[in-house]
Amino acid sequence: MVQDCHEHAGGPPLIPVTWQPHAEQRHAYAGPQVPDGFTVMLLCGLEIEARGGLPKYPHWLWPECPTCRERAGAGSPNQPPSGLVARFDIDLPAYGH
After folding, report:
1. Can you tell me the mean pLDDT for 13-18?
2. Cα–Cα distances in angstroms (integers) from residue 31 to residues 1, 86, 96, in the given order
3. Backbone angles phi, psi at 66, to 5 degrees
4. Is 40 within 8 Å of 52 (Cβ atoms)?
5. Which site among 30, 58, 81, 82 is 20 to 30 Å from 71 CA-CA?
6. pTM for the whole structure
């Protein structure tokens, strides 16, 4: 049986993650790459300004943030592969409040 790329064995649907260099680590945020200047919430909880394009040398050599790596599912063979993450909800306050 062919499995949809957005589903994994018995778990919730998967969504893509985008890796972004920040503070000498590679971090991830949920969803596809966004244009430069957009604020994104990283899987580890930090908010940063996105930078488009693939990480350049030396950024792609930086280690992955352990929290982002774990939440992206790259830390265990029983979790989805890096690059996909199970859907989760984040409660963010409204802007200006």
Report:
1. 78
2. 27, 11, 24
3. -60, -40
4. no
5. 58
6. 0.63
**Helix H segments across the chain?**
66-71
Contact present, 25 and 95 (Cβ < 8 Å)? no
pLDDT digits (tens, 9 = 90+) for 29-55: 999 888 889 999 999 999 999 987 766
- Quote the CA–CA distance of 57 and 44 in Å, as a whole number: 23
Number of alpha carbons in the 13 Å side-chain half-sphere of residue 10? 2
Does the bond joining 66 to the residue before it have cis omega, within 30 degrees of 0?
Answer: no
Residue 56 structure tokens: 């350049």
Contact of 86 with 80, CB cutoff 8 Å? yes
The one-letter amino acid at 36: D
